[in-house]
Design a protein that fits this description.
The structure is a homodimer of 152-residue chains.
Chain A lengths: L17 H10 L6 H11 L5 E2 L1 H10 L6 H13 L4 E3 L7 E3 L5 E6 L4 E6 L4 E4 L7 E14 L4
Parallel strand pairs in A: 4-7
Antiparallel strand pairs in A: 1-3, 2-3, 4-5
The structure holds a DNA duplex (30 and 30 nucleotides).
Chain lengths: 152, 152
DNA sequence: AATTCACTTTAGAATCATTCTAACCCAATT
DNA sequence: AATTGGGTTAGAATGATTCTAAAGTGAATT
């Protein structure tokens, strides 16, 4: 058996031990399977990351995993539905999945298709309009689009 | 079909007269063609709008225009490149084009795939982080994602 | 261990928005 | 009117994502 499970839900735990990842999955209501464990290891084994489905697929293959494209998509969607990942929409071409699920914002460098986290406390949204009647705020996203500076 | 009055006014308001639209196009560096004029009429003839390519296609067909899908895409992209439209990225499935090109923000109701403008002055972003070295801020976007309120 | 059953994974097909191709069309110029 | 170079087009191509239906696997049960 395993010792006391850590009930840290929305936290950027650097889970890298297999049992921690397994715990993370089952706590999220997902059955612990090899594919999910392996992808969870890639996703959550390092610090915060932003991945596209294809990039994760490549990474899995490079790591010697035998995982189909469909499983990568399924898994990302399930992790997202389970609240383990956040989906970020900044580029029309593809979706990014962010392992940081705490409230925070993003820089986006379109030329490099690169996302950079901004901690929530680094942005101060002092005033927001009232929501239209019948609607509630789900989430406030601030996206700062960046360009490379012209050379001096 | 389109008789062409040769009046060239320099107006940049809510253009809805054919010559105003033509002027808008040529000022933007675009050749004035029937397809562009017709789509410009649909896009800019009414107040601010948010359209998808497909919705605009439908609208054009409903208005009796003979316009191909490719032309709708080409035109939207050209208008965007020319600064006449802004592209809004909130849904992975499709791109929105916004006829309001002034700085402003958006509510987005995912369940209804609906965008609602928020005037710039209704949001106060009091503090922003410094951009990473070598990058400049192109644009700051605030997206407020809404859910339908639960029924009372 | 074997059986069962529901959930997973898979390869490949299907879908959908968007872009590309290559041929034809038309606006501006001569 | 002829030329020319961009514009428009239908249809093919692309690329991300989803779907299908078949085969595999985890967890519980025998």
């Amino acid at each position: 058996m395993i010792g006391t499970p850590r009930m840290r839900l929305s936290e950027k735990t650097k889970a890298h031990r297999a049992d921690e990842l397994a715990d993370k999955l089952s706590t999220a209501g997902l059955r612990v399977t090899q594919a999910r464990l392996a992808l969870a290891h890639l996703l959550f084994g390092q610090g915060d990351r932003h991945v596209t489905a294809d990039a994760l697929r490549e990474e899995a293959l490079a790591a010697g995993l035998k995982i189909s494209q469909a499983t990568v998509y399924n898994t990302l969607n399930q992790f997202h539905a389970a609240g383990l990942l956040r989906q970020v929409q900044v580029d029309q071409a593809r979706s990014y999945f962010d392992t940081n699920i705490d409230a925070h914002h993003h820089f986006y460098v379109e030329e490099e298709a690169r996302l950079i986290d901004i901690a929530a406390q680094e942005v101060d949204v002092a005033r927001l309009p009232d929501s239209p009647k019948g609607y509630d705020v789900d989430r406030v996203e601030v996206i700062i689009r960046l360009d490379k500076s012209p050379k001096a």
